[in-house]
Design a protein that fits this description.
heterodimer; A: alpha+beta; Alpha-D-Glucose-1,6-Bisphosphate, Chain A, domain 4; 8-stranded antiparallel sheet; 4 helices; 8 strands; 24% helix; disordered C terminus; B: mainly alpha; Arc Repressor Mutant, subunit A; 2 domains; two-stranded antiparallel ribbon; 5 helices; 63% helix; elongated
Chain lengths: 166, 118
């Protein structure tokens, strides 16, 4: 064990807007193995179950969780439907690298690196790093959460936030 | 057209400006005092201050000569709120993932040959 990171526990999601690059970090510890977390991120049926809010339905449209593969899913509630897609660059048991785009703003592409670190006691730490292409883009992601809070009709952005575009 | 929060984040993206803000949280300072620790001109520091001012992070006092720089703490509250809201969204998502993982566990314990019935 070379890591000292087990000193801190992330029972709740911890977030940090990186000060030097336009990125967002999120850490969260899970009761489960790295393999289970990997499955939850790469099995389309499992992914659809947790990615969206309870009041929305995620339907996987395309899914190839392999190196060089791609994904697309539709997220809907009533008449509102939003599409998200991206490419899987690296799909490894301990690490997934992928792009992520909301089709409503197709030029905004985030590069996400997810790592699953075995904490050695049945828990696994997820670290999600989302790199945006500008500080403006990064901050727009962060801000969108607030607008959702006050405007329920802002479903598109709700989607961007809740689904892990971070 | 950048709104205030974008300007705040952008202003704080620079390490020198972050350092200046950190020092101002301990008390107001003049431009000269702020410039002292850095190997840059007072002019360069003034430029940094202008960015911080435009972001609403600092204000300049009215005393004719000194014009001490004052940090505006409320702006940080605003930033903290945005981030916390975003964090909550992530947390909600991961609580759903918790539930999925718990089910994976059950599936796993049901399949082995031991099969202590629940």
């Amino acid at each position: 064990m070379s890591t000292t990171s087990t000193d801190t526990r992330y029972d709740q999601a911890a977030i940090e807007a990186d000060p030097s690059i336009p990125a967002i970090h999120i850490w969260r510890d899970f009761a489960g193995t790295p393999d289970q977390l990997f499955r939850a991120h790469t099995d389309p049926d499992l992914y659809a179950r947790w990615i969206g809010p309870d009041d929305r339905t995620a339907v996987i449209d395309r899914w190839d969780a392999t190196d060089g593969g791609a994904f697309r899913f539709l997220d809907s509630r009533d008449d509102d439907q939003q599409a998200f897609r991206g490419c899987f660059h690296t799909v490894r048991r301990d690490r997934i690298v992928q792009t992520f785009t909301w089709e409503g703003m197709p030029d905004d592409v985030a590069l996400e690196t997810l790592t699953f670190e075995d904490l050695g006691d049945g828990h696994t730490r997820l670290h999600a790093l989302s790199l945006c292409d500008s500080f403006e883009g990064r901050d727009a992601w962060l801000r969108s959460g607030m607008e959702v809070g006050v405007n329920d009709g802002y479903a598109a952005i709700d989607r961007m936030l809740a689904d892990g575009s971070l | 057209m950048a709104d205030q929060l974008s300007r705040v984040f952008a202003a704080l993206a620079d390490p020198t400006r972050r350092d200046m803000v950190a020092r101002l949280t301990e008390g107001d300072a003049t431009v000269g005092q702020l410039a002292a620790p850095y190997a840059v001109s007072v002019q360069a520091v003034s430029k940094h201050l202008k960015v911080l001012e435009e972001a609403g992070l600092v204000t300049r006092g009215r005393e004719a000569q000194r014009r001490p720089v004052h940090v505006e703490a409320e702006v940080f509250d605003l930033m903290t709120k945005w981030i916390e809201r975003y964090r909550q969204r992530a947390e909600e998502r991961y609580q759903r993932l918790d539930a999925v993982l718990a089910e994976l566990d059950e599936e796993h314990t049901e399949t082995p040959t031991k099969g202590t019935a629940s």
